[in-house]
Design goal:
Layout: H1 12-38, H2 45-49, H3 56-62, H4 66-89, H5 93-110, H6 132-145, H7 155-161, H8 164-167
């Protein structure tokens, strides 16, 4: 349901658990990005070279040029951090959710949990088709469809301050 301010109307329990979900996923993304940013030796090269998914030639190809690898690493580090920060603060959370969905989709395409796919870096558990990346991706879709940042988050303030022409983009 929507109220007159074009924002969703949820029960207190729904708001609570949707916000908790947003915070948990936001923390996960932000922390993953921060760990990579703080480690000057971190690189995604081994992960990309280990790709066995349907687009493995693309991911392996990214490792062939040092400048491309630097860009991939920079985008991964800061992208994860900014997605997490956006979700945690409820700032541009729709855009953050779309960014997170994109990252997780890319990770799944690179390392799908298909029968017979063996990776250098093993999974924490035993998966068949559905892995933690797809579960978190689905949770981000839930947050995209049932947003809470206009209720609890910086987006609540941005909606009041931004011109209607910007709000029509529906990034908030």
């Amino acid at each position: 349901m929507k109220n007159s301010e074009n924002c969703c109307v949820y029960t207190k329990a729904q708001i609570t658990w949707l916000v908790v979900l947003r915070l948990f996923i936001g923390w996960h993304f932000m922390y993953e990005g921060l760990v990579k940013i703080m480690n000057p030796k971190w690189t995604s090269m081994a992960y990309l070279l280990d790709s066995k998914g349907p687009a493995s030639s693309f991911f392996i190809g990214l490792t062939q040029d040092p400048a491309t690898m630097n860009l991939v690493n920079l985008c991964n580090e800061w992208g994860l951090f900014l997605v997490g920060l956006g979700l945690l603060t409820g700032c541009l959370s729709k855009l953050s959710a779309i960014g997170g969905i994109t990252f997780l989709g890319i990770y799944y395409l690179s390392h799908p949990s298909f029968i017979g796919a063996g990776y250098i870096m093993p999974f924490e558990g035993t998966y068949l088709w559905i892995d933690k990346n797809l579960v978190e991706l689905a949770a981000l879709v839930v947050l995209l469809v049932f947003p809470t940042s206009k209720i609890i988050g910086i987006d609540r303030l941005l909606v009041k301050a931004m011109p209607k022409s910007i709000l029509k983009l529906k990034l908030i």
